[in-house]
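Lab notebook, entry 387. We have the chain sequence and a SMILES string for pyridoxal-5'-phosphate, and the next step in the workflow is to get a structural model of the bound complex before anyone spends time on docking refinements. Request logged below.

Task: model protein plus pyridoxal-5'-phosphate, output structure tokens.
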Amino acid sequence: MKQFVAERMATVPPSGIRRFFDIAATMKDVISLGVGEPDFTTPDNIRAAGIASIEQGLTRYTSNAGILELRELLAAHLQNLYAVKYDPLKEILVTVGVSEALQVACLATLNPGDEVIIPEPSFVAYAPAVIFAGATPVAVPTYVEQEFAPAMADLEAAITPRTRAILLGYPNNPTGAVLTRELSLQIAAFVEKHDLLVYSDEIYDRLVYGVEHVCFAGLPGMWERTVTLGGFSKAYAMTGWRVGYLCANPEINAACTRIHQYLIMSAPTAGQVAGIEALKNGEAAVKAMVAEYNLRRKYMVSAFNEMGLDCFEPKGAFYTFPSIKSMGMDEEEFCEKLLVEEHVAVVPGGAFGVSGRGHIRACYATSLPQIEQAMERIDRFVNKYRG
Ligand SMILES: Cc1ncc(COP(=O)(O)O)c(C=O)c1O
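Result returned:
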């Protein structure tokens, strides 16, 4: 039989995260710090709105761009938080999470052979989204010494005549790094100088701890050339509802909408109705969850540092990214042994790009008692191998 799988699939490896989940799923008593998803269930009022929509018979497609009320609320939300204006009729598209928004944005704006700069370590779906669009991801490594922020000299060095865009994901998965306004302005100047498009994945915008989140499109000169990607999954604990959004100038938005129309039709209706409730009455729940994440974050960072695994202080998202370089083994071996011997699942940093090697990602979107137990087990493991 002919080989029916397309050649492009050979350029996209399976996610390095999944392999560990699969192993963990076969074991008992595993404490998972692996999955990047809130442990909270969706707040009651939001769940109730989704359920009511189904009971009322709202079970059909919505308009391709999404329920207008949701787009209007999103426009007001971004205006209130960041003073960034998007027209709900022409500049906002409701998507199946940031996952779809990201892929649609790449498909709508990249030509074969284009290059997209991606600061790494980064979310596992970025490079594949670029490759599926026929373009080439160009990784720019970031390091703990620079608090995992891209160095301007490294960004400059990555520019070629084929560079078309930069993909920014801050607050960052997996490092928890947040871009300061000052650095964001420097990146904006770089973007302008090289006439680039920006994809800004701001799915963790609400999960910041004592620092501001800078909405990239709000920086001078950036609105026209930025595709803002956002969603409900993280801040409102709504991963399973599959709703997100994409905001861009009318030309890019129309191109994205055309792809979305043929690929998806419309985002899940119940999810969109739940999203409306989230934006109307979800703020208290967001604040309460962020406060809880912050307690866990502080606990986990100190616990890693106390056991001698140097841990950069993440200012956003819900991940820690400690170094395991002092352990005398690579991160793959560390994660596999930790899982088998102590039943704690964390993710090897190399899954997020070469510059993630020597680190592990531990997610604190799990309860404090679970985290305490996990840290005890990791401490025992570290002591055992350090001798
Ligand atoms: C940085 C980042 N972007 C996007 C996503 C996907 O989000 P969604 O559930 O909206 O598709 C994730 C999920 O882990 C993520 O970490």
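Notes for the group: The chain has a mean pLDDT of 96. Worth checking against the assay data. Residues 2-42+284-386 form a domain with the Aspartate Aminotransferase, domain 1 fold (CATH 3.90.1150.10).
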